[in-house]
Amino acid sequence: MFIHEMQRWPDFTWDGKQIAVKLGEVRYRQGKILGQMQVLGFEIREETMLNTLTLDVLKSNEIEGKILNAAQVRSSVAIRLGIDIAGAVKTDRELDGVVEMMLDATQDYHTPLTLARLFGWHGALFPKGWSGWKEIKVAEWRDSSMEVVSGAMGKEIIHFTAPDAKLVPAEMKRFLNWLNDSQPIDDVIKAAIAHLWFVTIHPFDDGNGRIARAIGDLQLAKADKSKQRFYSMSAQIQKERNAYYHILEHTQKGNLDITEWLEWFLNCLDRSMEHTEQTIIKILKRNYFWEAHRDLEFNLRQKKMLQVLLDNFFGKLSVSKWALMTKTSTDTALRDIQGLLKMDILKQDGAGRNISYQLKEHQKY
After folding, report:
1. Shared domain check, 121 and 172
2. To 5 degrees, how large is the angle CA 154–CA 158–CA 160?
3. CATH number, domain containing residue 354
4. CA 47 to CA 64: how far, in whole Å?
5. pLDDT single digits (tens) 323-344
6. Would the pLDDT of 364 be above 70?
7. Of 236, 251, 284, which marks where a domain is finished?
8. Are residues 226 and 312 both part of a single domain?
9. For residue 343, what are the domain limits?
10. How far apart are CA 170 and CA 181, in angstroms?
11. N or C: the chain end with fewer CB closer than 10 Å?
C-alpha cells in the first residue's frame, strides 16, 4: 500500500522535536547567507544569483536525465533577468520554456499557484507536445495510470504507483488549496511537504519531478522572503540523486509519518547552503586579494593565472603547467612566476624537478 491509498491521506504527521534542531540550523544559515550577500555588493549578488539559477535549471533537468546546454541556459536566464553578460548565445523555445518556469516560480513567489499557472508551467516545459519520441498530454492532467518502474522488460520492478487518473483533479484541487492557504507550518517544512505531496500525486504525463522541485523552490523563496536565489536545492539533489529516489520510495511505501523525509530534505538543503557559504568565502578571498594588491602591476598572463589560482585550481602549479595554460614558452612562464615570487604573491615548494608554486596565504584570507 502506498501512502496515497491510506484512509487518512494526506494527513501527514511528523515529530517536530526530532527536526527542530536541523530546522533551526537551516534557518540560521538562510539568514547568514542573505546577510553576507548584501555586504558583497550589487554586481556580486547579481553574478551569484545568475549562477545559482542557471545551476538550478541545469541540475533539475539533469536529475531526470535531460542534459541542457549550460551556455544557453545562462544566456536565457540573463536575458530574462535583464543582466548583461559577455558571450551570450542563441537559445531555443524549448529551453527558454524550462527557464521561464523556474524564474516564474522563484521571482513571483508571492502569487498563488493556480491551476492556470501550473498548466502554464507544464506547457512551457513541453511547447511541442512531445516528451522525447512520445506525444503527451500538455497543460492538462494525465488520463492514464502512472507507474515508476525499473529493470529489463519482463523483470520490471515497480517502485511506485500514482493515484488513479480519475482522482487527479480532486487531489490537485486539495493540494493547491493547501499550498495557497496559510498554515501554522514553517515555510521550509511546507516546501518539503509540497515537494513530496505533488510528486506523489504525479498529475502529469511527464515533467512531474521538475515541477515538484519548482514548487519547492517557490516555497523556499517564500521562506527567504526574497527573489534573490543564492543556493540551489536541485543542484544538491542531483549530487544525492540515488538517496533522493530512495527516500521518496521509502516514504511513499511507508506511513503518513514523514519525519524521515523532512530530515532528509532539511539535511540536503543544509548541504546546499554549505556549498554556497564556501562559494562566498572564495568570493571574499578573491576580492580581498585584488584589493590588497591593487597597487601592483601584473601582465595579462599573471592576471589570468592568479584568477585561476583564486578560483578552482586543482593539483600543483609548475612552470610547464603555467606555460601550457597561458600558451607561452617555459622561459616566459618562469619569468612570470619569478616576478610573482618577488612580489611575495607566490611561494615555492619542493626542489629540483619537484618544484611547484602556490598562492602565499595572507592574514585576512
Report:
1. yes
2. 160
3. 1.10.10.10
4. 27
5. 999 999 999 999 999 999 999 9
6. no
7. 284
8. no
9. 295-359
10. 17
11. N
